[in-house]
Amino acid sequence: MVMHVIHSLESLKVDRTVVVVGHGADRVTKTVREEAPTWANVTFVEQQVQRGTGDAALVGLSIFPGDDLDDDSTVIVLPGDTPLLQPDTIDNLVATHVANGYAATLLTSQMDDPSGYGRVIRAPSKSGDGRVLRIVEQRDASADELATNEVNTSIYAFRRDLLGPALRHLSPDNSQGEYYLTDVIGALAGMGHRVGAVLAPPGETAGVNDRWQLALAERELRARTNRRWLLNGVTMLDPRQTFIDVTVQLGRDVTLYPGTILQGKTVVGDGCEIGPDTRLVGCVINQDCTVENSVGRDAVVGAGAHVGPYAHLPTGSAVAAGQSTGAFYTAPVE
């Protein structure tokens, strides 16, 4: 999930990406290190005691070189559980932040049911300019504050020279006894700094906290991925029954039949027909192949081959170019 968040930063040309890890640190670090693009320049730092989002941000800042006294560069803070975030949205957040010289800029959403989210509190539009004053967590909000439907998405752009000092002055004086990153917004606004906000669609900024939300996010990501390939010349007889990981690469004039599942770093060459009811994980399928009603993992299929129906391609196996396997075939492992 965090890889989708990292990829949303691609067009910004970030200098460094710091991933703050805690529970399951070894697993997260291993996966991200293997899959992160080189442009992200990913490094890791562990929050050994989970003392809130403010403490996590401070731990993350500790790995940046130099001090923050005269560094007015932009620091983007994102949660690792927002896989639907679009690059254009982050670009707009940073562009708005820099163009207006804000101390901090929030990404916010308006929700019909804002339950569970921190509320964005603004100055009254009649007496002020609607500027952001603070964020209040739901458990600490008054009845009037709970009536606000503009919510904090936990996605921010900060000036580094203002973020660091503000984090170091946070207090855990709240119902959770934690250091809230949200308190930085009120602190900066209280000192007279300007805090901006950019509105984003709620479906794009929603976090994933359980398996139901994960399934919804996967459905949306699948729809985006399928649409991209359809617009680039791939034929799908039924996109709703076609599952393609974002790491998969497809050639020109590929046809995917219903029940096709392509996962991992699978590569499918030009002119191939895959499916129906075929699952390929980490396979390389060269051009002009047919693979039907089959399962393969980390296997290679040579150009012009016909695999299946009901073939099994185990890890390390290969089908020679031009070969027709026939039904119920198991490829030998080289």
From TrEMBL:
<dbReference type="GO" id="GO:0003977">
    <property type="term" value="F:UDP-N-acetylglucosamine diphosphorylase activity"/>
</dbReference>
<feature type="domain" description="Nucleotidyl transferase">
    <location>
        <begin position="1"/>
        <end position="197"/>
    </location>
</feature>
<dbReference type="InterPro" id="IPR029044">
    <property type="entry name" value="Nucleotide-diphossugar_trans"/>
</dbReference>
<protein>
    <recommendedName>
        <fullName>UDP-N-acetylglucosamine diphosphorylase</fullName>
        <ecNumber>2.7.7.23</ecNumber>
    </recommendedName>
</protein>
<dbReference type="InterPro" id="IPR005835">
    <property type="entry name" value="NTP_transferase_dom"/>
</dbReference>
<dbReference type="Pfam" id="PF00483">
    <property type="entry name" value="NTP_transferase"/>
</dbReference>
<keyword id="KW-0548">Nucleotidyltransferase</keyword>
<dbReference type="InterPro" id="IPR050065">
    <property type="entry name" value="GlmU-like"/>
</dbReference>
<keyword id="KW-0808">Transferase</keyword>
